[in-house]
Design goal:
The protein has 248 residues and is of the alpha/beta class. It has a single domain, classed as Spore Coat Polysaccharide Biosynthesis Protein SpsA, Chain A (Alpha-Beta Complex), CATH 3.90.550.10. It is 31% helix and 21% strand. It is built from eight helices and nine strands. Strands 1, 2, 3, 4, 5, 6, 7, 8 and 9 form a nine-stranded mixed sheet that branches. Strand 2, helix 2 and strand 3 form a beta-alpha-beta unit. The longest helix has 14 residues. The protein is globular and about 55 Å long.
Length: 248
């Protein structure tokens, strides 16, 4: 199957304006994400989708491939769908959020392998362990799963709630990571769906798919990649990079 990874990137983040181009590590944050995606064995091409000339220039400067899109997209998946529309040969489209620089490329491969093995999977994503301090953090998105492995719900709130306290918990809280895989036809269908009430309430684009009655498979991992949501989380990422590669 022809697989492309599209990284949607916009400049005007409310919580962290200019986030894709933050460069305290010596290269733009977006470049870290791009290079991570390029290491996936199952991905044939990596593309940045943006409406901003500054982001386009940065991607071209590090040798990446970029597609310019409209500026009126309500969410990243919609932007990805437009970019993927210019590549009709793509059969599976991975939507990798541009703020996941520490996501292991093996997770992209697992998504593709799952969809190759099971033609009934139209959309898939990844979740892993939630650190205790993230339970109340709305920037850490949680997911509750059905027994068959599909998502029941995504929320910024701590779900599932242990009514009788943590000692009674039987289902762990899982953190959702910013990566999705769609079959090309399913992605086109997503883009044609109107936004939904839960999506707009939680500000979580994946809820649109569930609210329209569609299934999303969730693959579990023991990894704990830290997404970059705020200047503080970016500063922590920079510190980790510097600790891993101390200056000589």
């Amino acid at each position: 199957m022809k697989v492309i990874c599209v990284i949607p990137a916009r400049y005007g983040s409310k919580r962290f304006p200019g986030k894709p181009l933050a460069s305290e590590t010596g290269q733009p944050l977006l470049q870290h994400v791009y290079e991570a995606a390029a290491r996936a064995r199952k991905v044939d091409a990596v593309i940045v989708a943006t409406d901003d000339a500054r982001i386009r220039a940065a991607v071209e400067a590090f040798g990446g491939r970029v597609v310019m899109t409209r500026s009126d997209h309500p969410c990243g998946t919609s932007r990805v769908a437009e970019a993927a529309g210019a590549l009709p040969e793509a059969e599976i489209v991975i939507n990798l959020q541009g703020d996941e620089p520490e996501l292991d490329a093996s997770l992209l491969d697992r998504l593709v392998e799952a969809m190759e093995a099971d033609p009934s999977i139209e959309a898939a994503t990844v979740a892993g362990p939630l650190a205790p301090e993230e339970a109340e953090d709305p920037n850490s998105v949680k997911v509750a799963m059905a027994a068959g492995g599909d998502a029941l719900y995504f929320s910024r709130a701590p779900i599932p709630w242990a009514r009788d306290g943590e000692a009674s918990r039987r289902a762990p809280m899982l953190k959702h990571f910013g990566i999705y895989a769609y079959r090309a036809a399913a992605l086109r269908q997503y883009a044609a769906m109107p936004p939904t009430p839960l999506e707009m309430t939680e500000k979580l684009e994946q809820l649109r798919w569930l609210e329209h009655g569609r299934r999303m498979r969730v693959l579990l991992t023991d990894q704990r990649p830290a997404g970059i949501d705020t200047p503080a989380s970016y500063a922590a990422f920079v510190a980790r990079r510097k600790a891993a590669r101390p200056e000589r």
